[in-house]
């Protein structure tokens, strides 16, 4: 079974998801994990599919791209199974005046503490810049990490919070 | 309300799991997708022998499942409005009623809604952010005696009750997540 990594991005308009999903379904490509979101007027889709050969999907999406302003990429990837968890889930929130290098500096602090970012989104609205990250941290590092995050945030002139996001099993 | 009319008793009275007086059997927990988890369960007769056995089975299955604080009949494949809850010792619990089973339970008051991240034995690989009332009044009947009761609770026990009542209505936490980005892969197994 082929596993494909597909990205589609284009000027947002109603029907992009339906159009792309329809093409994939017609080819027998099974959409597994995906995120699709609007980023400043562009619609961005990142998905993993299983099924047909990459070339076949690429050709089918190219026909769709030709009609509008969609850019699609398709490549075969090797499924390598799940990455074992680093530890406990946390949410990091950063906000403040926009400037160069906020994501770079803050995520570097996370990585240096052994953390692994599993989800991240940023928004710029007016002068306000917002970063939200889901991050897995090794047990026991959160307190010292928070000190380092505060120091880096202070240098950048932004605010940071880090809170546990451990689920309750019901 | 006149003095003659009495609402349901507040609290569990002298009900304990031992009042069921039958040994519970550990049952297999079903996972989504399964049709029994997605349809509204049927009302039960709380005095019926099979309801009492079901209550005992729910408690037995909940007790052997690590970290499990609640289990609804649909989760063991039975489409009946019965569930067990026990949040004793949970760090987020405030009011605690111990181990109990309710039949035909319904929410009568729900206030102070708060977000929280939930997982479910029937959806083992995902968690999600769900708003639940942190002040809750629930009415239902006790298995065995059939006594109508009213439970007033809060915090984590309130969350657990809403999660189990949802199961009895054919709803999973997935039906209530806060948005398209509020479901997460669950990687830490208890």
From TrEMBL, chain A:
The ACT domain, residue ranges: 5-79, 91-163
Domain of life of the organism encoding this protein: Bacteria
Pfam families per the UniProt record, alphabetical: ACT_6
InterPro entries in UniProt: ACT-like_dom_sf, ACT_dom, UPF0237/GcvR_regulator
UniProt-recorded name of the protein: ACT domain-containing protein
Lineage: Bacteria, Bacillati, Actinomycetota, Actinomycetes, Micromonosporales
Automatic annotation (TrEMBL), chain B:
Any one of the GO BP annotations: translation
Catalysed reactions, as listed in the record: N-terminal N-formyl-L-methionyl-[peptide] + H2O = N-terminal L-methionyl-[peptide] + formate
Pfam families with a match to the protein in the record: Pep_deformylase (PF01327)
Residues that, per the record, bind Fe cation: 120, 163, 167
EC number of this enzyme: 3.5.1.88
Entry-linked InterPro entries: Peptide_deformylase, Peptide_deformylase_sf
Residue positions of the active site: 164
Assigned protein family: Belongs to the polypeptide deformylase family.
Function comment: Removes the formyl group from the N-terminal Met of newly synthesized proteins. Requires at least a dipeptide for an efficient rate of reaction. N-terminal L-methionine is a prerequisite for activity but the enzyme has broad specificity at other positions.
Full protein name: Peptide deformylase
Species of the source: Micromonospora saelicesensis
